[in-house]
Write a structure and sequence with these properties.
This protein has about 400 residues and is mainly β. The protein folds into five domains: about 40 residues, no CATH class; about 80 residues, Immunoglobulins (Immunoglobulin-like, Sandwich); about 90 residues, Immunoglobulins (Immunoglobulin-like), CATH 2.60.40.10; about 80 residues, Immunoglobulins (Immunoglobulin-like), CATH 2.60.40.10; about 90 residues, Immunoglobulin-like (Sandwich). Helices cover about 0% and strands about 45% of the residues. The protein is built from no helices and 39 strands. The strands form 13 sheets. A four-stranded mixed β-sheet has the order 5-12-11-8, with no helix packed on it. The protein starts with 13 loop residues before the first strand and ends in a 6-residue tail after the last strand. It holds the Pfam family He_PIG. This is Dystroglycan-type cadherin-like domain-containing protein. Keywords: Signal. InterPro entries: Cadherin-like_sf, Ig-like_fold.
Length: about 400
């Protein structure tokens, strides 16, 4: 048997597609046989892409402030490895595996650094970028400059006080701990106000934080606030005065609050006509008019707290009422004749001194205030001055006329 083999047409080939990568890849060809049978190779691998440093710039750093940033890369095949030239400024380190910069720079300045990125391709891809790093001068931390706080008084408005600080990055945020009852702290104006309700000394810790980035700077200090007991006037009455007699000095007294005190009379009137009140609370002078003089006395402490008290000064005019002594006669019993006084504050005490002395034979008894005896000598239109003192130490004097006639037998 003879087999006959028909010869098929020689296939012809035509290039349909060609894909060629310069980086490690696959050469793919699509061919078509003359019999029009088409075969297509697998789609090409897109590959790792070009290696790129994506960080465009470095944020500013600040001396003695923590600094941290990671340089970013893309493309290529990970893991990456990093390098930098020249070295970073003192106290800043660079992680070659992660591309992280960290640390706390020590000095101000600006420097340029070239960062190199290499991937894990075979052969490896490499790229570089130069970035500038600015290190600003160190921030001045905040410091509380208020060294003391004024005292307050129970139930009296506290003098509004503002705390102050310097340095730091504004705005500054304040926070107190341990404020006395009744007082409040306004964080916006960093001021203290209110009406304290209990006495004592409170140690208040004030903390101020600035707005530095990335970490706030903080300062704190402890200041004492003393709250005095409530202010009050202790003087409840005033001694009486006498017309044309020296008065005082009389000291008004107060307690509580904060000294020194300042005294006034509401309305500005004097304590009494002829008297004055000093800011220290002392009443002095010489009353010129009798009567009862009531005024509202006001005392204010050094914190602005004030209270009032109504007090009266009575000005009495001590007088000797006796207008004259009856006429006497030599050798005839005289009296007793009682002298009388009024005004002032009883009891009265008469002075034993009579100026000039009474005629011989007459005596003045200061205990009873009487003149008695038997005159031995005549006296025509004589005058004798008597003196009396009251319980408030006021004195009054008066000259009284006295005539002593001669005896009847002498005619």
């Amino acid at each position: 048997m003879t087999a006959l083999i028909a010869s098929a047409p020689r296939p012809s080939f035509r290039l349909l597609q060609r894909s060629l990568r310069l980086v490690l890849g696959v050469l793919s060809l699509s061919v078509m046989a003359g019999c029009n049978d088409v075969s297509e190779a697998p789609a090409p691998d897109p590959g790792p892409g070009a290696l790129t440093i994506v960080t465009a710039s470095l944020p500013d750093a600040t001396v003695r402030q923590p600094y941290s940033i990671t340089i970013g890369g893309s493309g290529g095949i990970t893991p990456y490895s990093w390098g930098v030239t020249p070295p970073l400024p003192a106290n800043l380190s660079f992680n070659g595996a992660s591309g992280a910069i960290s640390g706390m720079p020590a000095a101000q300045g600006t420097s340029s650094h070239t960062f190199t990125l290499q991937d894990s391709s075979v052969p490896p891809q490499t790229t570089q970028k130069t970035l500038s790093l600015k290190i600003n001068q160190a921030l001045v931390p905040p410091a509380i400059t208020t060294l003391s706080l004024p005292a307050g008084t129970v139930n009296a408005p506290y003098p509004q006080t503002t705390l102050n600080a310097t340095g730091g990055v504004p705005p500054l945020v304040w926070q107190p701990v341990g404020m006395p009852f009744g007082l409040t702290f306004d964080a916006a104006s960093h001021s203290i106000s209110g009406v304290p309700t209990s006495s004592g000394t409170a140690n208040v810790t004030f903390t101020v934080n600035d707005s530095a980035v990335p970490f706030n700077q903080t300062a704190s200090g402890t200041l004492s606030i003393t709250v005095n007991v409530a202010l009050k006037i202790d003087t409840t009455s005033l001694p009486e005065g006498s017309v044309n007699q020296g008065y005082g000095p009389v000291q008004l007294n107060a307690s509580g609050g904060g000294q020194p005190y300042s005294w006034t009379i509401v309305g500005g009137a004097p304590p009494a006509p002829g008297l004055t009140l000093s800011s220290g609370g002392v009443i002095t002078g010489q009353p010129t008019t009798k009567g009862a003089f009531t005024n509202t006395y006001r005392v204010q402490d050094n914190n602005g707290a004030a209270v009032t008290q109504s007090l009266t000064i009575t000005v009495a005019e001590l007088i000797i009422d006796t207008t004259g002594l009856p006429t006497g006669r030599v050798g005839v019993a005289y009296g007793p004749v009682a002298l009388t006084a009024s005004g002032g504050t009883p009891p009265y005490v008469w002075s034993s001194s009579v100026v000039p002395v009474l005629p011989s034979g007459l005596l003045f008894d200061p205990n009873s205030g009487t003149v008695s005896g038997a005159p031995l000598v005549p006296q025509i239109n004589g005058s004798h001055t008597f003196s009396v003192r009251d319980a408030a130490n006021r004195t009054a004097t008066k000259a009284l006329g006295l005539t002593i006639l001669d005896s009847l037998t002498s005619r």
